[in-house]
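INFO  loader      accepted 1 record
INFO  loader      residues=378
INFO  predictor   begin
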Amino acid sequence: MPRLRAGVTPPVGDVYCISWQNNSTKADSHMTIPFFDGHNDTVLRLLELAAPGQEAAFVEGGRGGHIDLPRAKTGGMAGGFFAMFPPPLKGSLAGTVGTAASSNGQLPPELAVADAQASTNGMASILLRLERMGALALCRSAAEVRAAIGQGTLAAIMHIEGAEAIDTEFRALDVLYAAGLRSIGITWSRANAFGTGVPFRHNADPDIGPGLSDAGKELVRQCNRLGVMIDLSHLNAAGFRDVADISTHPLVATHSNVHAICPHARNLVDWQLAAIRESGGMVGLNFATGFLRPDGKFVADTPIELMVRHMDALVEAVGEDGVALGSDFDGAMVPAEIGDVTGVQKLLQALLDKGYGEELVRKIALGNWLSMIERTIG
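INFO  predictor   done
INFO  writer      dumping tokens
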């Protein structure tokens, strides 16, 4: 149980208005706390829509999924890491998180660089077009993130989930960095030239498979040199250890939960949480029901109280400065009570109701991510 915190962090930007009753921890119906999301797959969802019109689907909304611009504004989303995930080829073992195919406990086949580059370039193009349209600001530094939020513009950080689109000579890394890439998850739940991910396997430890390749270790060094944050979510235990040994940056898992509560290979065991804390790192709470529930089932009827239980454990394990949100929106089944981006305020209210002080909730929602972006991206 986190201790209560006194004091109030001022709201960021005029778009976010806060209203409280009687100075209690329970907010009134008009309360909105701005939040930064550590991970979403919205750009992949847009890529899979028929072109043209992908950007309009985000700007105008009303075409399904968890995030679009109207709902992001309604829900208080200040920004987030927008993942570019090169999807498996049709007919491969894996699919969207929560499907039967992705939950069979096997690593999907590796993806060819050319195939990964085609989809990654398509998603990068969508982000760049959205920026030109004024729908979001593609941010390359903490200062740009703060400026966008202050102006009421959605602050987006370009992220890769699975580095298959990067060649081992790192030419594509240079190009993507110039386009705005500032965060990389070395693996998704499959192997690539740099490392090995964990399968979607319940009642399993992440200590599965070999560590980083020589190219993977060099990728870590290149990211440190450029100021690209490294995301440990999906990476196996041996690869995690290699990053911890090599990286000069804090250890970050943008969208992972607590293995002791939900024993899924995707979740973090005690020694990993301890290593993250020691490095001054960060864990973003994943909303995917199969990574929340002790039974590992992807079931929408999953209570918000279980999310709070994971948050309690994360605060205890890594400290108040090391916890944040990493929804996995548009890439996973989330609790029905949350529904989509407009439901995040229900989780934040649940934390307040549990006894988390307002200052701590604001740190979890936004402040901790801003601090981590400053310390890794610059």
